[in-house]
Amino acid sequence: MSQTQINFADIQAETPTIEQITREYQDINNALDQAQTRLDKEKALQQWEDLRRRLNTWSEMTSLNFSQDTTNKEYQQAQEYSDELRPKLTALEVAMKRRLLNSQDRTELESILGQQAFSLWSADVTTFEPAIEEDLVQESKLVNQYVQLLASAELEFRGETLNLSGIRKYTQDSDRKTRYEAEKVRWQFFSQNQAQLDSIYDQLVKLRHQMAQKLGYDNYTGLGYKRMQRIDYTEADVASYRDEVVAKVVPLAQKIIDQKAQKLNLEWVMYWDEAVFDLQGNPKPQGDHDWMLQQAQKMFDAMHPELGSFFAMMVAGNFMDLKTRPGKAGGGFCTSFPTTGVPYIFANFNQTKGDVEVFTHEMGHAFQAWQSRNLPLIDYLWPTLESCEIHSMSLEFLTWSQMEQFFGDDADRFREIHLAQSILFLPYGCAVDHFQHLVYANPEATPEERNQMWQQMEARYLPWRQYEDLEYPAQGGLWQEKQHIYCSPFYYIDYTLALCCAMQFWVKAESDFEGALTEYIALCQRGGQAPFQSLTSSANLVSPFQPGSLANVITKAQQFLNL
Q1: From start to end of 324-430, where are the E strands?
Q2: Tens of pLDDT along 93-140?
Q3: pLDDT over 50 at 452, yes or no
Q4: Contact at 8 Å (CB) between 297 and 312?
Q5: Is the pLDDT at 1 greater than 50, yes or no?
Q6: Are residues 219 and 209 in contact, defined by beta-carbon separation less than 8 angstroms?
Q7: Is residue 340's pLDDT more than 90?
Q8: pLDDT tens-digit profile of 54-106?
Q9: Full DSSP string of 467-511
């Protein structure tokens, strides 16, 4: 734990120019050319590391500013500059990685930097050539268009003007009519903007396909996997895993839906009923934003001194932005600034139980980033994304014992609902992933055909789903609300892979909380020093790609949910 308090306002992130960065890379290359001893090489590599950390801090700060206010002209321009510069910076970085990969001193370099970095870079160098520079700029612009479009939503509902995050409290209301009407209003926004949503995605798919072909791939899927740095499993492994979810999880999910129908006294669970689990409605945190931060401090103090002191530092340094407001991007994420090692949490509280779930989730990311901040390479500060999500989703479960802090007497109901939702999420996450595999295998498909693909996915993974007269999702448009599909292709399956691991931590914590928490902290400290399946094995978790990996979890969940 650092003794000096770092404040968010004090973080310096100077805007680079391509000329300046090119000169710095020349200096590093010259230093490597002249390096005679191991120490000389270490110094040159440290120079490169310092440069990458500076650039990453600037890039993340720029992106965060834009997310905090998508209407701010200065932030928009800074983001556009970043998007245009990024491919040029990538070109310089990839050239350096190629140099190190092909170096006659590679064995010595691996002993300095670790083998994992070289495995990651072997994937990275296949994802970039100068020929796709302009395409990457265009991709960023389209992604920003989508983010801005969703952030611009102004939904009129019962005398309030709400954004897409703000209306969520009504889509989860205990009153059925309120939920239905809120969903009507929400999907109206998508219907009004259908042409733009279809156009942005169509352009993104064709652009990504074009980039993949320029780089020698058949279609975007192979490139997408490399961009995600998947180095220890394949498309075939993911397909088998999805089949396992259909065989083992979908039947349990159907039971949860049937149980929900009983509790809600409904013959059929409609789409607008899926967010609630009983007639009482979902439990809500019993206070506002400031109260939640106080309760969170109590929670983390009770769990572990490391968690308690870390959270206190985050609050004192203003490393969180949790309130929803006009113009702010939707969703939640965690980022970090590698020049300081301190992470930052972004969320949109909307007075629902999701506030607690998103908060504990992003805190899991943040805690991992803090625990591994002193690892020597920027490549290791975060693991690959499916491993990252283990830290976040596991903390959602490891905080169960403290849920009374937020929900009081409703804590048991919260735990039950959180588990039921987690089980229901696995097939949905697989549907999002499988859909993207279909999309990128058929890049010329029309918007209508893509909607049909999504309907096929719903039939396979979510067979209970019924929209009645919610026209937009009934016609297959539901996928358009999922930002990851537009912004981060193939990311979404990572949540489900990690959830399989997180639920294993839950099973462990139910019998030995201290032991589970110790293993969790150790996993956080390892950062990204190993690929996904090595990290799971090091934490005594069964890889989701192993047949039967879900057996224990499903048995335990059935018992817990009385199914």
Answers
A1: 333-337, 342-349
A2: 999 999 999 999 999 999 999 999 999 999 999 999 999 999 999 999
A3: yes
A4: yes
A5: no
A6: yes
A7: yes
A8: 999 999 999 999 999 999 999 999 999 999 999 999 999 999 999 999 999 99
A9: -TT-HHHHTT-GGGG-HHHHHSTT-THHHHHHHHHHHHHHHHHHH
Mean pLDDT of 48-52: 98
Please tell me the predicted confidence (pLDDT) of residue 2. Answer: 44
CA 320, chain centre distance (Å):
17
DSSP 321: E
Strand 155-157 and strand 160-162: pairing?
A: antiparallel
Average pLDDT over residues 386-415: 97
Looking at residue 331, what is its pLDDT? 86
Which residues sit opposite 157 in a β-bridge? 160
In the chain, the amino acid numbered 551 is A
CB burial string 176-212: b at 16+ within 10 A, e below: bebbbbbbebbbbbbeebeeebbebbbebbebbbebb
Half-sphere exposure of 141 (CA within 13 A, CB side): 14
CA distances from 368 to 310, 372, 539 (A): 11, 6, 14
- Beta-carbon contacts of residue 397 (< 8 Å; ≥ 6 apart): 418, 502, 503, 505, 506, 509
Nearest-angstrom CA–CA distance, 425 and 419: 10
Helix, strand, coil percentages, rounded to 5, for the chain: 70, 5, 30
- Is residue 229 left, alpha or beta, with left meaning phi > 0 and alpha meaning psi from -120 to 50? left
For residue 282, CA distances in Å to 123, 174, 276, 506, 558 come to 44, 7, 6, 21, 21
pLDDT in tens, 202-228: 999 999 999 999 999 999 999 999 999
DSSP per-residue string spanning 117-177: HHHHHHHHTTS--GGGHHHHHHHHHHHHHHHHHHHT--EEETTEEE-TTTTHHHHT-SSHH
Q: What is the 3-state secondary structure (H, E, C) of 100-133?
A: HHCCCCHHHHHHHHCHHHHHHHHHHCCCCCHHHH
Alpha-carbon gap, residue 36 to 38, rounded angstroms: 7
Mean pLDDT value across residues 176-194 = 97
pLDDT at 165: 87
Contact between residue 392 and residue 362 where contact means Cβ atoms under 8 Å apart: yes
Residue 412, both tokens: 């048991």
